[in-house]
TrEMBL record:
BP term (GO), one: mRNA 3'-end processing
SUPFAM superfamilies: ENTH/VHS domain (SSF48464)
Keyword Coiled coil applies: yes
Record's keyword terms, sorted: Acetylation, Coiled coil, Methylation, Phosphoprotein
Protein name: Regulation of nuclear pre-mRNA domain-containing protein 2
Annotated coiled-coil segments of the chain: 173-234
Organism of derivation: Ooceraea biroi (Clonal raider ant)
Gene Ontology MF term list: RNA polymerase II complex binding
Domain CID: 3-132
Renumbered residue ranges of the record's region Disordered: 275-299
Subunit organization: Associates with the RNA polymerase II complex.
Gene3D superfamilies the record matches: 1.25.40.90, 6.10.250.2560
């Protein structure tokens, strides 16, 4: 057998004969680790054997899984993830009081050594405590994956139809004129030859009615047996569904408890938080539409306007002033008495730093144009 092959039957025999001893468990654990490329087949076979053995041997199989998983966690092997996908189903098989506390001990060790995350292990602990069984029941045959309720309904309707047919055959039998219970009277009537043919016809009719009645009863009985079989399957299927619903309900209940505990801790910390923006008083008056709201900076603007100064600041590229720019007040131009003129060009300084006589420039340009 090459290294790429994996003998499932051989591994099953090893699992069945596994002993609850350190030497036996570590030996089979090393065997599994050597064939870690078949980790999926190993885990699947382990789960199938777990379903078939007694509860005491299931604990031994969990010890094997624990040894392989912890070693794989240190070496970063695939067994940790592969076994994690089947642990939820396997946990529901070890809820017996004989092994329950030891399985919980394994989960506690996994939590301390951070084999799996805390939430996953909390769900496993919830599953093992969901529906404890005081007595181990023999594992019945696996229920159908999905029960066909429509087949049960149609079979029951067919059974009702056959029951009506049986009643009709019974009425036909009772309506027969011949009294087959009185054999003496029947033999006496047969002595008369004229009655022989009529009696023969009546006997044939009764015989056919009896045969029809018997066949109707047999058909009805077969249909009733099928109804009973389907009802047993339905009971097994819905009982399994009920158990799974209990498991899910318990898991959600544990999750809700953790959420409540977290909410309780947050409520305890909530009074220590300081709101950055205090809420206004509920009795504070609201401003009316006609009220004049004073904005910050209005007083400074009024003061500057009263002093006769004009705030001049260059606009930015997008039409607004930068925050770091400090506008400098520039005095308004003064009117010189005695030399009052309507020519405003002499009142502006040149950007070169000197005064430019705009009036002379205007006269020279006009003279040039006239000439």
């Amino acid at each position: 057998m090459t290294s790429s092959d994996f003998d499932v039957e051989f591994f099953e025999r090893k699992l069945y004969t596994l002993k609850d001893s350190q030497e036996s468990i570590q030996g089979l654990s090393a065997w599994c680790l050597e064939r870690r490329q078949h980790h999926k087949k190993i885990v699947a076979t382990w789960l199938q054997v777990l379903k078939k053995v007694k509860v005491e041997h299931r604990l031994t199989l969990f010890y094997l899984a624990n040894d392989v998983i912890q070693y794989s966690k240190r070496k970063n092997f695939e067994f940790v993830e592969s076994w994690g996908t089947t642990l939820q189903r396997a946990t529901t098989m070890v809820r017996d009081e004989k092994v329950k506390h030891r399985i919980l001990r394994i989960f506690k060790i996994w939590d301390q050594r951070q084999i799996y995350d805390e939430e996953f292990l909390a769900d496993l602990s919830g599953l093992i405590s969901a529906a404890p069984k005081k007595k181990l029941e023999p594992q019945p045959a696996g229920p159908p994956e999905e029960f066909q309720a429509a087949l049960l309904i149609s079979t029951m309707r067919s059974c009702a139809t056959l029951e009506q047919a049986t009643d009709a055959r019974l009425r036909d039998l009772r309506e027969s004129n011949i009294d087959i219970e009185s054999a003496e009277e029947l033999r006496a009537s047969l002595k008369d030859r004229r009655r022989v043919e009529d009696a023969e016809k009546e006997i044939d009719l009764v015989a056919r009615n009896v045969e029809n009645y018997v066949r109707a009863i047999e058909a009805e009985l077969r249909e009733r047996r099928q109804v009973l079989e389907l009802l047993e399957q339905a009971d097994q299927f819905y009982e399994t569904q009920r158990g799974e619903v209990k498991i899910v309900t318990n898991a959600y209940r544990n999750f809700g408890s953790r959420v409540k505990n977290l909410k309780k801790k947050l409520d305890e910390l909530l009074p220590t938080f300081v709101s950055p923006i205090p809420s206004p008083d509920v009795n504070a008056p609201s401003p009316s539409p006609d009220s004049d709201i004073e904005l910050p900076g209005d007083e400074a603007q009024v003061t500057n306007n009263q002093s006769g100064l004009i705030d001049v600041a260059p606009p930015s590229l997008y039409g607004s002033y930068p925050h770091e720019y400090d506008a400098l007040p520039v005095p308004a131009p003064e009117m010189v008495q005695g030399n009052e003129t309507t020519d405003f060009t002499n009142n502006f300084p040149s950007f070169m730093g000197g005064n430019v006589d705009f009036s002379n420039m205007v006269r020279s340009s006009n003279t040039h144009i006239i000439s």
